[in-house]
Amino acid sequence: xxxxxxxxxxSLKKSIRDFAQKEIQPLVKEHDExxxxxxxxxxxxxxxxxxxxIIPPEYGGAGYSYVDYVIILEEISKVDPSVGLVVxxxxxLCSNHINVFGTEAQKQKYLPRLTSGQTLGxxxxxxxxxxxxxxxxKTKAEKxxxxxxxxxxxxxxxxxxxxxxxxxxxxxxxxxGKNGISAFILEKGMAGFRPGKKEDKLGIRAADTAELILExxxxxxxxLLGKEGDGYKAAMAILDGGRVSIAGFSLGIAAGALESxxxxxxxxxxxxQPIANFQAIxxxxxxxxxxxxxxxxxxxxxxxxxxxxxxxxxxxxxxKLFASELAVKSSSMAVQIHGGYGFSKDYPVEKFYRDxxxxxxxxxxxxxxxWIIAQKILSEY
Length: 381
Known about the structure:
Helix content is 51%, strand content 15%. By secondary structure, the chain is an alpha+beta fold.
């Protein structure tokens, strides 16, 4: 087992850190307060290869490994988790669903647009009555002639207002339940397909989150992504990799909060000495950095296994569970170490605190992760 990053990975880590500091950091405060996505950033992310991270080069992607992907997401999210989430949703969900389950024609048509930064992609499974119980979705796709007609509303969809390409899960045979769910590729401009209410969120405010509304949307037969009835199974497979990305996103939040706290503790003087000299602060930092390394190991292991083509529902759930809950714990501790300044927008930890909670909810709540893990260990032992 090799726990060392390669020279290429070290170089990648530095280049993403430099990019994040130069291109993302100056935008953070303004767009967090306004709740807007800095649209000029999309093209820059594309130019850096960050919108096609795990997509093969023949479709315009960077062809990076999942371990590389985790490194990238940690460095981006350490500066702004909003950008980290947008990159994760675009790569892991929309683009990768097309990459893994699309026909050659679909890959050639859509992936170059997604990887170049021409547009962001959205992936729509969640509905008002279908959150953790994803199979309970009500959006329908009915066969009409040689195509389909879609009706329904999707909720809490990342990039919904910005994306020109979206992967939509819909019922093609309601009588079959989850085995009657299929996936479709839709494009902005299709009649009846539009974004709805944009969410005014607690955290991750610069990431666009909105409804997607489908009213008698007519799509051709070639819009079907994968086999009819395989949409739910495909979505669960895509989410396994997606949870690795959310673990990487969570690492960035935890690392950002802890590194900010370490810097502050060395600079903040009370009782004539830096608070870093006090055992109470030292133990918080010791626990936080130890748990951060444990989260990295879980996440890198899941990413490594994904790169080997292994099925990783348990490993990705473990990584996502541990890393996401650490993000919340570390950011809360960071606010405590900062004291009153922890509530000030002049310090980054208040934003990490707000942003962190989404990590334990998105792409499966902590409770769903525990259920997945429990089912696997009960069947394995």
